[in-house]
Queue: 2 jobs
Job 1
Amino acid sequence: MEHNLDHTLSLLARTPAALNALLRDLPETWTLRNEGENTWSPFVVVGHLISGERTDWMPRARMILQFGDSRPFEPFDRLGHVRETQGKSLGQLLDEFAGLRLANLRELRALNLRPEDLKRRGQHPSLGTVTLSQLLATWAAHDLTHLHQISRVMAHQYREAVGPWSRYLGVLQCHGHSAP
Amino acid sequence: MEHNLDHTLSLLARTPAALNALLRDLPETWTLRNEGENTWSPFVVVGHLISGERTDWMPRARMILQFGDSRPFEPFDRLGHVRETQGKSLGQLLDEFAGLRLANLRELRALNLRPEDLKRRGQHPSLGTVTLSQLLATWAAHDLTHLHQISRVMAHQYREAVGPWSRYLGVLQCHGHSAP
């Protein structure tokens, strides 16, 4: 399937409300536990999404439109969530994510991107040449990868509690597929 | 982690709103496409969740409380979604799921289950002896397995669109882990 900007916008606009409905005021058992050492809880994932809103998606889109592939993107700060989450509650993070996403989508819509703009190229520091279209599709798929992760991390907390049903629950067979 | 009924109820109560926020009025590209022959779209998954509300979770809980392990559960009808989805829109399914879940949780709360009730045993047609506690924990984990599936099915639609980023997106490395 080809990338469709309207479909991307539809999905990006819904993620904050979906995470809010799923996570707000849930017991911390679900939101603060992770899958073991050096893994992320849902709380940390929301911090990571905030970090992406600030430093990744729209800044990279602007770089492509301004500089094309003449300058590589800043590498994505995969520890940006540490700064974003310090001293905050999950409720604050959910609000912050929703606000940043709303502002970013407003800016993206205001660009009135035409099909030829979506073909413009940028330089990824390790992947090489990418297009604006691929960047925006990745933004949406990145939301889904973290929804996939959150559901897996939460299910992990009930691995023992479900008893013999564990073999029927696909999410408990998923061992994560993080980026290198 | 042990099973905690309050934590289970908290999660079960949120799933309908989370799916509603994610899926309602999304373009059909996201909601009606699947991962290929004999796989499920998000639309079908919501039908399957409705079928579980009607015929699986609370009926099995009632059987455990009434008959213990003297009578096996009815096998879960994994094609129940066909009947549930016929001629309906996704919006109708989301409403129906929310209504059924609300009624089921009301009934579950009204049972005022004590710790000793949660230890009561039932007979699963293929897994053998299970407890009421395991059944209720599985109900919650089953929501998560299908949220995990929905995010994977949706991300699959952008497998090509993300270009070289596909290797960084964990959800695109997940090949599903359905029950046999």
Job 2
Amino acid sequence: MSKQVPVGVSARHIHLSEEHVRILFGEGASLTEMKPLSQPGQFAANETVAVVGPKGSFGKVRILGPVRKRTQLEISRTDAFALGVNAPVRESGDIAGSAGITIQGPAGEVVIEEGVIVAARHIHFHTSDAERFGVADKQKLRVRVGGERGVVFENVIARVHETYALDMHIDTDEANAAGVKTGDMAEIVE
Amino acid sequence: MSKQVPVGVSARHIHLSEEHVRILFGEGASLTEMKPLSQPGQFAANETVAVVGPKGSFGKVRILGPVRKRTQLEISRTDAFALGVNAPVRESGDIAGSAGITIQGPAGEVVIEEGVIVAARHIHFHTSDAERFGVADKQKLRVRVGGERGVVFENVIARVHETYALDMHIDTDEANAAGVKTGDMAEIVE
């Protein structure tokens, strides 16, 4: 059986805590939905922030909602070099000891001591997809993508949940190295 | 036999024609060597230029010498998006129909209609290395690099010549996607 999965390329983005939304956008502010994402309930917000590192900065970094318990900035390694931060490759939510950054919004500024990561590539599987493909939660997969720049990514983490939609998430470095874009198909090779 | 090859990560850089050196740096100017590169006779020059595309620009792009017949700017796909140019993946020297760019030096400016490429990943083999590894010129190889971000690159082009030193050239997107840096080792897997 061919195990095909659609690719979703994640540009740099940020998840904010409720407290940080309040500081950055003002008392009573909340995130407003611009468009839904592939994972049910998740959305790209109309709101953006600037992030400032010791070597460089990015304006208009898209906020993904809804709010989370802890603020988390997800960047590529290329971005990390440009900002001058030493962001580790981590699974979402695993931010202990990761890099810090300054975040600027229209109403205020927040300095976080940790929360900046390079997201480890992963595939979201609905429980039924995982069953069909014979894949277990947290399993590490090898996945082939691309044409003339074809690449096999190792250590692609399977994340299985009944609320997930089938989608492989890679960052812009990985997408560019493989010459792929959102909507292209990847194949699990083992 | 394990077929190990050192990795060299190419940041964005430019090769200039003699005429363009004259226009950009002035009559009688020539490139001066800052440091030698891994390939014999090649060097990073002290001189840099700015490159300006429709969407963005980069200052201080390193010139690699010596001068070539035709000017060629080598960038990553991430760079191509930032500049706003549609640079194809090509082997060095194969620039027909590639992207254009504006190049600015201290003495003048040049607009090239073609010459901007994303360099196809490749390995330089000295003739003796190629013989030892059983590799032929222009053969396409699969090459494994990296640790936690391990990647197998497909379509890595073998370039065999008696003046070459053993080195695998990848760009910054590819290096960042695989989490490797110059001096790390790659392994030819077939």
